[in-house]
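Entry:
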Amino acid sequence: MMENIEELSPLRITPTVRALSSALRGKREDVHGSSRVNGDRVFPEPEKLWFKESSAKNLRNRDFLSPTTMLNTLYADGQVPPAVMSRVLSLRGSGVLPVAGGEVMGEGLRVRVDRAATFRAVLGGGAAEYLKPLSQRQGCVVLNCPALHPKPNTPSPDTMSLGQLRTVLLADHMGALLRRQGYAVSFCPTLPEDSDIISFLRALGIDWPTAPANWTNEEREEKIQDSLEKSQYREREMERGRRTSGGGGRKAEEGENEGALRINLKRVFQEEGLPGYDPSLGTCTVNRDGVSQLAQLDLSTADCTAAMVTALHVTSCQDEFRQQQIAMLWRASGAKHTQRHLVCGPVKTPGSHLTAAQYLQLRRGQMKEASEMKYGDQVEGQTWDDIIKVMTSATVRFELLSTVHTSPVTLDVKREGGVSTKGPRGGVFVMYNCARLHTLFDSYERGVEKGLYPEIPEDSQLDFSALKEEGEWLLLFNYLIPFSELLEQSGQALDSEGGGARVNIKTEQICKFLVSLSKDFSSYYNRVHVLGEPLPHLFNQMFCRLYLLRALRELYHSALDTLNLPPIRQL
């Protein structure tokens, strides 16, 4: 019974590395040798004992490697005892990839996975389990985007900077990722439904919450104002000297200081034990813009029924100080929710200055021009308008989200430049390769209709050992199998305790994953003729490849969904 459970468990990289480490380390008495520090044996961390290979070159002769340096730490002269080798070769466990063989060579102990069994396990049961996070989390996350808050007027695409646009796209991506992991997600602030900014966001495929243009949040604003006036952190006596305005990011005018409401923010984070906040926050004056943002945050969390509520402020580095003020003002008003700050680096455009609206217009024009050059007169009508809209959104998202969020992004916005539909760069390349998969299956279906090919049989009728091309194992081992663990990372980072106000999440990884996947798929697709001659003795290999590429198509859809990008089915 246990064996059946193990076979049905989705195969994962992390459990395999853990099982390999456990097999290699064994019990203390199995470990011999004289490598000591201060008389104590040094044992490497389990996760450092083995490395998953990923390059095509290394995957030709091994899938996992325990380097010689690690073996020397565990065993005299790096000699792996026969009993230990036997444990490695007979590796079993839930989610553990089946081992076909292993040997000690100059670089270390290398292990090969039973590839045919792995192809059958992953592809035969359908790839659905490999396209979702490992577990479903609980809790509510409010993604707050300071760039969209009124100051005091609703922002417009003509005034939004590219740095602010980056924070909005990042919030949208994080929302999709966290929803996939089970979180209830809401966005802040609510925007007027007929505003230019909402039309702009929709052009990028962003679905932001709206309210009627005449809607107000005055009742909550009054409640927040009252809470701050009664706050234990309110300064009862006027202090002389320099004051920093809260929420508006400007110094309070001398005339405003008389009778103004001031909150000691330094006391808030010190007395409530909140690490990571700027010690120079000091005392700030409450203003209308700040109260408005707090009321919007209060509204966004009002419907959260989960025990754990986290507000994630996605802000630019220029606005980080002001957002820390807002966070501590909210705390001072009585809000006890966890607050974290996801801070974005600047967006640079050497030689020019573009607003968000100008940037989108530029990229849309370049995308249309590139499409017309490639496809000619057929680029017209609603279908092509929709394709160009999605391709433009993909271009913008990959340009602004493929870099580590704390690092600067530098854009080439020369008007004579173009958005290439060729070459392994960014969103266009990814969308093009996704479309190639759809075209492949359309061709297969037409072949079935013409009687050239039979329908794809059940997996039990196929021999997956026919998948011998190195690109096939690369696509399964580097992309299909690890994807679930990649999806899990944003939730893990958000759940992590400590580390202060800032949270660092590998927000660039989905974009990089898709670009890398597209490079390897493109290389494979250009090299291998999937739909071969309609000869019965070739059908097994063709069907095995179609099983793999069908799973790959679903992988594209799943990853693009976290970027709110619909797949393009034909180009």
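The chain is about 45% helix and 10% strand.
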